[in-house]
Each structure stands twice: as C-alpha cells, then as structure tokens.
Design brief:
- The protein is globular, with a radius of gyration of 18 Å.
- It has ten helices and no strands.
- The chain is an all-alpha fold.
- The longest helix is centred in the last third of the chain and has 28 residues, at about 140-170.
- The chain has one domain (about 1-229).
- The chain has helices spanning about 1-25, 25-35, 35-45, 55-70, 80-110, 110-125, 140-170, 170-180, 180-195, 205-229.
Length: about 230
C-alpha cells in the first residue's frame, strides 16, 4: 500500500512536471524544481520525523526565494510566466513529499518491496495518459521521439538510484544536494544543445543565461545549508 501511495504522488508530480516544461523553458523550470530539497526538509519536519527546523533551513529558504526570482525574471518586453513557475514549484512540492516519505515508509516495510511497488504503480498509471495523445500513438516522429527516447533511460536510472539511496540509507536531503546540480546542467545544455535540436532556448541572450546560472548556483548554495543546519 505504501508503494502504491508513493507511486501515485510521484506520477502526479511527473505529470505536472511535463506540463511545466510545456508552458515554460527547461532552463527556467528545471532550476526552479531544484528547490525540491527545501520541501523535503519541510515535510520531514511536518510529519514529525525529526526535530524543529535548524537555522540553515531558513537560510536555504531565503536563498531559494531569491534564486527563483532570478531564474523566472523575464527578458525585456516579456511577461513573467506565472503558470510555468507555479507548476514548477508544485512539481518540486510533490517530489519533495515523495522524497520525504520514501525513507520513512521504506524502513517501515521492506525497501525493495516498497520501491518496486512504487515504480510499478507509476508504469501502470502511465497508461491512463494514452487518451491525451494527439494523433497516432505508435507513429514515430523522427525529430521529436528520438530525443524523447534518448531521455527516458537516464531519467529512469536517476529516479531509481535516488530512490535506492533514500530508501536504504535514509539520506533524502543529502541525495538532493547532488540532484540540485541538474539546474545548472539544464541551463547549460539547453543553451548549447538547444541550438542544435531547434529549441528557442538555444537563442537566449547572455544576460538571461548568466542570471539563470546565478539563480541555479544560489539554489545549490541554499540546499548546501539545509542538511548541515
């Protein structure tokens, strides 16, 4: 039952994540989701799994707030994308809740059983998205599907490895420190690879690139304070 509950939360969060990426740039949404460890710590405290929040947590919250502002601030002449920002933060909240509960529920049962049930649930629930597919489901779109397929394997591996680390070793905050580095990689790769595969993010100005990189660095700095506070 615990695995099904975790899988349902993870699935919903993943679905919201794709909605956020659909509404906004990956180089903006991904670093915002880097605030997830802040939510991990919040839920750990909220569920009474540890003591009161340390001072480092509040420093992290302050830095993440500034970071999100830097990342989300639009270029001159463009409006702030509140929808992708909101969806990105909602995604971070859902993933943060999942990461906070994984080590607790996994230790209450058998970690392997809980994690297997969790990812099996995600796979089963994915079939309910088929009605949302536009056009033919089995039709292979060369320019789009090849990149989607190329991203599925590393995305699945990172999710399993993160869950194993948290389920067996109970290190949700520490695991998320390394996970937060994805924000910087998302910005750099979106800027570099984006131009190759035709994404508009490949044409972002240097000012926006620097501002988003600074925001991503502040997120990582804030996350550094979270487990050490």
């Amino acid at each position: 039952m615990a695995g099904f509950f975790l899988g349902a939360i993870f699935f919903i969060s993943q679905f919201i994540c794709f909605l956020a990426l659909q509404k906004g740039d990956a180089s903006m949404v991904t670093p915002i989701m880097g605030a997830k460890p802040i939510f991990v710590v919040f839920f750990v405290f909220a569920f009474g799994l540890t003591g009161s929040p340390p001072s480092g947590t509040w420093i992290a919250v302050f830095l993440s707030t500034i970071a999100i502002g830097l990342i989300a601030w639009p270029s001159k002449g463009r409006r702030i994308g509140f929808k992708p920002i909101s969806l990105g933060l909602l995604t971070a909240t859902g993933f943060g809740l999942t990461d906070a509960l994984v080590p607790y529920l996994a230790q209450k049962s058998t970690p392997v059983h809980v994690l297997f049930s969790m990812f099996t649930t995600v796979g089963i629930l994915s079939f309910f998205l088929l009605p949302l597919v536009k056009g033919k489901f089995l039709y292979f779109e060369k320019n789009t599907d090849k990149w989607m397929l190329a991203s599925c394997l590393p995305m699945g591996i990172q999710a399993v490895l993160m869950s194993l680390a948290m389920g067996f070793y109970q290190v949700p905050a520490e695991a998320n420190i390394f996970y937060a580095c994805r924000g910087i990689w998302a910005i750099l790769l979106a800027h570099w690879v984006g131009g190759i595969i035709g994404l508009k993010e490949g044409k972002m100005s240097n000012a926006i690139l620097i501002r988003r990189l600074l925001g991503a660095l502040l997120l990582i700095l804030g996350i550094y304070f979270t487990p050490l506070g």
